[in-house]
Hints:
Belongs to the LysR transcriptional regulatory family. By secondary structure, the protein is α/β, with parallel strands linked by helices.
Amino acid sequence: MNNAKLxxxxxxxxxxxxxxxxxGSFALAATRLHRSTxxxxxxLRKLEQQAGCPLLxxxxxxxxxxxxxxxxxxxxxxxxxxxxxxxxxxxxxxxxGELRFGAQEDFAETLLPQLLGRFARAxxxxxxxxxxxxxxxxxxxxxxxxxxxxxxxxxxxxPWPKAxxxxxxxxxxxxxDPETLLARGEPLPLVLFEAPCLMRQAATQALxxxxxxxxxxxxxxxxxxxxxxxxxxLGITVRGxxxxxxxxxxxxxxxxxxxxxxxxxxxxxxxDDALRLAQIIEAELLP
Length: 287
């Protein structure tokens, strides 16, 4: 094959294609990308011409990727990620100094390495200092000017004035089969964070409203302690979907818990490097 005859993929058209597939709607993609629906349709036609094959096919009232479209999705995500990282690196050369970032423990192992690694590669002159901790401690540090940005759970009782909601995630029960525990006729053993804790509150309120007796079987100050106790069979806990260790699964048979928002918390006047990190986090977590 003569590589000189190969077309170059239009990255903006590729972005519209990937965004539409991920959102399940190209009308929603147009809104997200601040384009008209007709403009996005034109981009998709252009992309199919460049690819030389159909990328989408009708399914009901919508469009889904063809086999070729699925292949392009995989390559396209990598192309856009590299493109965006290159632009971030060029635009961020002037940024320097220390950026103090805080994150709730649930996000430490699953989200932070990828997000912070991307920021560090794009902004090598910024010294990134990361604090992993519980919600209340992070909010207090941000209020006292000890952090420049924080990724935390929403606290409906004390909302942060400059908070951006990135996602609503479902809460779930984790641990032993509750039917076995409840069949004993004893209070349900719970593995809990020390108060105050949003998920401790969600667990106990749900059980109280359902008339299910409970007892604190294990209380910990760290997320690692929570998961260790659950894996040891000491009781049941409530968490979100982030950072669930292998061997621990969600269980059914207990009251529904609802959801909790993941938020970016910023000071009144965020710095440029904090805004840049916020953009990276938004790109990863916004649906």
